[in-house]
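REQUEST FORM: STRUCTURE PREDICTION
Request ID: SP-0412
Submitted by: Lab K.M.
Chain count: 1
Length (residues): 196
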Amino acid sequence: MPARPVLDFWFEFASTYSYLTAMRIEALADEAGVTVHWRPFLLGPIFASQGWSSSPFNLFPNKGRYMWRDMERICSHRGLPLKKPDPFPQNSLTAARVATAGRDAGWTPAFARALYALEFGEGRSIAEEATLVAALKTAGLDANAALTAARSEEVKGRLKAENELAKSLHVFGAPSFVTPDGELFWGDDRLEQALD
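STATUS: Completed
RESULT:
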């Protein structure tokens, strides 16, 4: 039986549209016979390299207003809760490290979905350890072990390396999807195309 094709899913915990994708990618990938590799990364350094000090949704107010209204429509259609966290975007460094720590053990997807539900479903701060612990527990994980792993120099180095890889692949936003042959797709609305 041939191996299933693999799609890399680059996601950022501060990204609204990554929330939308995280909540549906596994089911769609299973239907398409595709394996998903969840790849947490940080947009902050990528934005900074473009001269941006914040999210473009903050830098360009009309774009930001549109995005939140767009999120309301999509979440309503998909039956997802939506509550804007304050501040936006959230500091996602520790969350990304936790997700990086879970990749090899296979629990990154469950943690990510649980954390997104708290962040964009309830408006909770993902920079607070209590929110990370709650997400880890919801995912059935040992929160102390996961946070200890996330603080290790090895995991910190892995996340930095992932960010460099994202840059080398020309990833500029989240969510992004990269196929085995290097084709890049950007945005929740491109998920089906990327899976095809």
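NOTES: The chain has eleven helices and four strands.
Reviewed by: T.R.
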